[in-house]
Amino acid sequence: MRAVVYSENGPSSAMRLTERPVPKPRAGEVLVRLVRAGVNPTDWKVRAGLSATLTTPEATPGQDGAGVIEAIGEGVSTHVVGQQVWLFMAQHGQPWGTAAEYVTVPAHKAVELPAGASYDLGASLGVPAMTAHRALTSGAVERVAAGSFDGLTILVHGGAGAVGNAAIQLAVWAGARVITTVSSAEKAALAKAAGAHHIVNYREGDPAAEIREIAPDGVDQIVEVAPAVNNDLDRAVVANRGTIAIYANNGGDELTMPLRATFSLNLRYQFIQLYGVEERQIRAAADDVTAAVAAGALRVGAEAGVPLHHYRLEETAAAHDAVEAGAVGKVLIDLE
């Protein structure tokens, strides 16, 4: 099989395309023939050594993907050969990921792709959708399902990003009123396509006043991508006993706040790193995301606010560079 590998942490040029034997699934695993692989910021950060150091002779990048079950390991009764699946956290806990024609993963990381869902969509779920799910369920509501967020107002920062877009789509499906912040008219159009009810350009006017006009009692939940720069705004618009769910450090690595003023809000700050989320929460995320796909609530493509950018496997370095440069939408690797 063809696979992209790197033997040391470094820039995208450290990766090379090579031939490797098709792996065999061990007990509890499945072998997946990949049709699409998704590329996320975590992929280039792991490869570069910013969030992990290579401890094996070589590694294949990629956490997300979609494809077809080709073989089943001993003890697996949940899957069948020929089943279409989407993958999450494929490279976590093992050196091989989805930038290859085949990959083996623990069976629970290969989730059935609902009928009619494209491989593009399947490969776009994983890290973005499951991170969005955890951000949305870190407050009072533990599951995302139709009607579960009725009466809640959710603020999503960075609504044109992959996690932000998934959070908007999931929250709208669950019945929430969704406000999102963006930095340009172009990104506002993407957030609108995702289904956001109210869009605030934080570079114009007074975003706190605009959000408070929409939600006089404050917002119940905030999905936060840039806490270092947004914390004052968040505290100004969050409802008492609200939750601020933080999944990234865009805009700075240090967060400071006035403690006494924050005490009075009875806030909950929930920091999220997908690889440390509890197993039951991961299972719930996989189930809820799949249900949202089956319901048509999670979509990709420009019409859903997620422009798609396709690369061939031999162009994986360029795909990583595109994500690192802040490509708007979803970067995918085509494997057939």
UniProtKB/TrEMBL annotation:
CDD domains according to UniProt: zeta_crystallin
Entry-linked SMART domains: PKS_ER
Membrane-traversing stretches: none
PANTHER family, alphabetized: QUINONE OXIDOREDUCTASE
Organism listed in the record: Nocardioides luteus
Name listed for the protein in its UniProt record: NADPH:quinone reductase
Boundaries of every Enoyl reductase (ER) domain copy: 10-333
UniProt keywords, alphabetically: NADP
